[in-house]
Structure prediction request, 716 residues.
Amino acid sequence: MNIRAQVSSVFHLDKCIGCHTCSIACKNLWTDRKGVEYMWWNNVETKPGTGYPTQWENQEKYRGGWEKKGDRLQLRLGGRGGLLGNIFHNPRLPTMDDYYEPFTYRYGELTSAPAGNDQPTARPVSMISGRPMKIEAGPNWDDDLSGSGIYAANDPGVLQLSREQRAQMFAVERLVMLYLPRICNHCLNAACLAGCPSGAIYKRGEDGIVLINQDKCRGWRMCVSACPYKKTYYGWATGKSEKCVLCYPRLEVGEAPACFHSCVGRIRYLGVLLYDADRIEAAAMQDDKDLVAAQRQIILDPFDPQVLAAAGKAGIAEQVLEAAQRSPVYLFVKKWQIALPLHPEFRTLPMLFYVPPLLPVVSEEHLGTQRLVDDYFTTLENARLPLQYLAGLFTGGNTEEIKAVYRKLMAVRIQRRRITVGDLSESEVAKARELGEVSAEQIEAIFRMTALTSIRQRIVVPPMLREQAIEAGMDPERHKQEMGFGSRRSPKRRW
Amino acid sequence: MTDLILFGVFPYIAVTLAGFGGIYRYASDRYSLSSQSSQFLESRMLFWGTVPWHFTIILILLAHLLALLFPTAWGTLLGRPLRLYLLEISGVSLGLVAVVSMLVLIVRRAINQRITTVTTVIDWVLLAALLLQVATGVYIAVTLRWGSLWYLHTATPWLWSLVKLDPQVSYMAVMPAVVKVHAVNAFFLLALLPFSRLIHMISVPLAYMGRSPQVVVWYRR
Prediction:
């Protein structure tokens, strides 16, 4: 057993209102610079939709993530030799047109235009070349299903459905959508890391954050192709790849990452998970449908004395273990088992989990006439949002896994409905609990964690113990005088 | 006098610039130690330029280097007419591919608005020097035939005399002008190495072949 700690997160999709506040907080903090205008380390997609960059889930096109080759895993990009053979030109690299060309407007023309018969207009100009351009795409171009005939219809998850299911999904007055906020998953088996020829990408041992060393990065862009989530980006002005850093400078002083802190719907949970690093590869080798269970299995119980002893031996600090015991992520992922990884079939073992949204599933029926618990569950199969689609997103196609989650989530609803509305009988509630395999106390706990928590319970930042790291290398007093705002050197190329 | 400066002095200046400039850049600005890729802004045309360019130029450079380092073996290898023909033909065709792909790269930089914004003056100097180098190379190969053999009796001894710090300028002084240009421009490119994107030649990711697929870094271990 080789225990490591990972700062992980849960996004509760039922609570996401798609306001993009997270994206803006991140943009202001990290990607408001030349060359990275198009980057959204945090973005919110409307599903069904093609996403950002367009069709990022289509690995036939981008070859991201891992695939099984006999008894071992190999990057879908190819073996190491093949990957280096493509070093002069990366055939699977998304180009700027797969994202969008960043633009601004010549606002000055509104006031400086000579007097005339026409209303002056601010012409759109490219933020790359500075020349006038025609805007054909932009951030969240397909927000709220706009252009669904093109965008939602070409969602790789929709394309894998049967014709009937697609017709069912796109029928008038039946079309549903969900918001999918995405940041870097800080994977256990990161494909970006495995694909980096210069070895610039690394996972921090203490907290599992995946970072790119900007001095080592040579801009070969293999990480951009290898990441199946397209969460590493190429900075065209600096010639370096960049990605979400999980706001580690904020975490190190005990603050929540900017996107978590600013989340209006309070959908974001953060906490430490303990896992067995020796079993990463075995877990990533499972069949598609068993990947979720396998990943859950290598996450360890922070209350188990054996685990605690082994973690202590592995050098995980007492305070971190204590934080792991308070981790809301552990509750959602392992104890309640209602949070699932996004696209586990990419085999990177992503450590960001999603509670799937309930709303589109139950809203199909008229709640007034839907009384019996049985009816709630029979609607699962012919719900407006096909289970197959959700299974494609969160369980590698395993519908049983996603059904189990929905049975629990519905049991929570039904029990709370009995308490707050009072129109359901106790026997109905008991039956819902039985079907969902969840106890009355657990339901209350899920309800409280979902709806009534403070930020201290939702976001449990472990002590990052930077002081220990500093002491190991230099006198803290001296360190204090040398640190501060600013960067050692501005990220500019002088040659 | 000109010959002495061009073939007896300038090579040393170029090597010094490349050496010290390279060390300085490696030590002080490792951040920029690469060729700033523009594939993200334009991919298709780049493919037809960069891929043939790199593979041909590496082979051509290798041939120049082998003839310099192992002149006797090289001479024996080309001792038979058939082998000589084969090498000359492949040399000329590789050179032609290199010229065409360099033209593709130059045109791409000139016409694509996105690419021009990430192009610097030194990039243009470099591209022009590279085009001059491959163009003169092909011209020499076609007009002054069997260069792969006479190289052994002109360039090789001249370069070795430079290495031995006893420059024998006479080897080059008698050469046609185009060969002189080719030789001087080669050292100009060397001098340009640390001051342009050509520096990316020194970073070859061979360690990738052997490293573990996952890298975990601890700050307390």
